[in-house]
Amino acid sequence: MKRILVPCNFSSYAEKAFRFALQLAEKSEGRLFVCTIISEPDALPTKSSMSEEIAREKFADFIMRINPGDVPVEHHIHAGKITVAVSELVEALAIDLVVMGTQGSRGWQEAFMGSNIGKVVRTCPIPVVAVKNDTTLSRIKNIVFPCGMKPEEEQLLSKVKMLQEFFDARLHLLYVNTHPRRDNQQSMQHLQKLASQYQLHHFNIHVVHSAIEKDGILQFAREMNADLIAMGTHGNRNPGNMYVSSIAADIVNYAPTMTWTCATERRE
């Protein structure tokens, strides 16, 4: 978490994301890169359209009000789509984490078209943190990691372990049993084996029943008042798959708390 990218349209949600990213950078002795997306020169103006001049003015006011202290902050302006901008900046600036503000799903339009954060989560090759509320590092005490017994999810556990250690939090390994007749004991044993394999400390193992995996994860997170949900995603950059159902993107949109997603494999 040394080089952190924060997409910013200067909304209250973007400010929450920036303030959290600032805490991360302070702890890791890193730097922040703020990205503002403006419309293409030949695009029709909309309510959210912003010129480069206005973007620079807003950024200057934004930084003066928040005061990042000793943390270095760079501002980048990019015309076009947010997924393209994030992808290009991640590669050009050697970014290792994206922190993005969101208010979650706002109804049928985003359920059909996908929110900006959902699109970034689906396509980004590096970890993405979605921030919904004002929070501090010290408040992150319980991290939920849903594990569906897939090899790529299990391999992600090493990164989740580092995340747990960074926040000094308790890790909750969760398996959602979508088959009523499947034996929970076998699932518990598998999770315990994983915990031993990765030499986990300060963790709990949970198996819950739900007909739909996404609903089981969300319900568990709400019941235990989780501070962060960590999940793997395919990191599929093919535009043709942008609107294919994604559990991780759905969790990001509908979870009541912060999420951390990371590509388990990179697909073009």
UniProtKB/TrEMBL annotation:
Taking every annotated instance into account, which residue ranges of this chain make up the domain UspA?
Answer: 1-132, 140-259
List each coiled-coil range.
none
* Top-rank lineage group of the source organism: Bacteria
Q: What is this protein called?
A: UspA domain-containing protein
UniProt cross-references to InterPro entries, sorted A to Z: Rossmann-like_a/b/a_fold, Universal_stress_UspA, UspA
- PANTHER family, per the entry: STRESS RESPONSE PROTEIN NHAX (PTHR46268), UNIVERSAL STRESS PROTEIN UP12 (PTHR46268:SF6)
Family note: Belongs to the universal stress protein A family.
The membrane-spanning stretches of this chain are none
Alphabetical list of Gene3D superfamilies matching this protein: HUPs
Q: Name one Pfam family in it.
A: Usp
